[in-house]
Amino acid sequence: ISQLVQAAPISHQTAFQISYAEDSQSAIWIKGLSFPGGEITNFFRANSIDRSTAMILLSTIFFQGKWKMPFNPKDTQRGIFWTCKDQSMYVDMMTQRGRFNIANILNPPMTVVEMLYENEEVSFVVLLPDNNVSTDEIIMNLTYEQLQEWTNPENMKSVPIKFSMPKFTVQNQYPLKGPFSDMGVKNLFIPGKADLSGMTGNNQLVVSQVYQAIVFTVSEEGSDAAGASRTE
Predict the structure, then answer these.
(1) 2: confidence class by pLDDT, cuts 50, 70, 90
(2) Are strands 55-66 and 210-218 parallel, antiparallel or unpaired?
(3) Is 155 helix (H, G, I), strand (E, B) or coil?
(4) Which SUPFAM superfamilies does the annotation name (predicted)?
(5) pLDDT digits (tens, 9 = 90+) for 24-33
């Protein structure tokens, strides 16, 4: 199952320089970043910042949406959720009956379900593969243009259904130096080639690493998503 949130989130970006105490091995240790819907934990791990760190650029983004038709927590029960064609697990499954916009897609075979948020300006889209289709196959075909076609109002119909989906929270962190280098952004990480003098007045600085972290929660009331990236 794949989800995608279409939203206008709140974002923030800041840069700060590091100052060190004489007896300090690490200048700062921020345990986590807190948002109304959750927390990104261990974003700055102990001793991850040392005396070679001159500056950190920190960016955050946050989205919180309430369902137009929230689930009743009394109807949430343990049930089977298929993570792929031959693997399943027990999770908390939320269930409700109501009218939802759905579309039956032939290639790849799947059902698209649209859940509206309370302001009806943004929506949460669920892509549910047919039994003989893997999630990977849908992901391979997923582009912005393709999603726009799948969710085109002309292709969707309002249908009364019984709809169940997992209640969950996921969190992860990713180093991005490798992907950036693979895309051709290399000089930024190479001493003597990086030029950050426009930001700092110092042409000796170089980016050592870029990290991104996300936390995403879906519950009976709605969904929360938060992301943070740091460049050091």
Answers:
(1) very low
(2) unpaired
(3) helix
(4) Serpins (SSF56574)
(5) 443 344 445 6
Q: Which residues of 146-180 are buried (b: 16+ CB within 10 A; e: fewer)?
A: ebeebbeeeebeeeeeebebeeeeeeeeeebbeeb
Q: Closest Cα to residue 175, out of 219, 210, 222?
A: 210
**DSSP per-residue codes, 74-105:** GG-EEEEEEEETTEEEEEEEEEEEEEEEEEEE
Helices (H), the chain: 135-141, 144-150, 177-182, 197-200
Cis peptide before 179 (omega within 30 of 0): no
Sheet of strand 222-231, all strands in order from the earlier edge strand to the far edge = 10-17, 55-66, 222-231, 210-218, 168-175
Q: How confident is the model at residue 85 (pLDDT cuts 50, 70, 90)?
A: confident
Listed ranges 7-11, 48-52, 156-160, 171-175; the one with the highest mean pLDDT: 156-160
Mean pLDDT (whole number) for 120-126: 89
Distance between CA 165 and CA 96 in Å, rounded?
9
Residue 106 token pair: 């032939």
Give the position of tokens 């119909």: 157
Split at pLDDT 50, 70, 90, the class of 11 is low
Domains in the chain (CATH in brackets) are 4-65+169-229 (no CATH), 77-166 (2.30.39.10)
Beta strands in the chain (DSSP E): 2-6, 10-17, 32-35, 38-41, 55-66, 77-84, 87-106, 109-116, 123-129, 157-166, 168-175, 210-218, 222-231
35's tokens = 């948002």
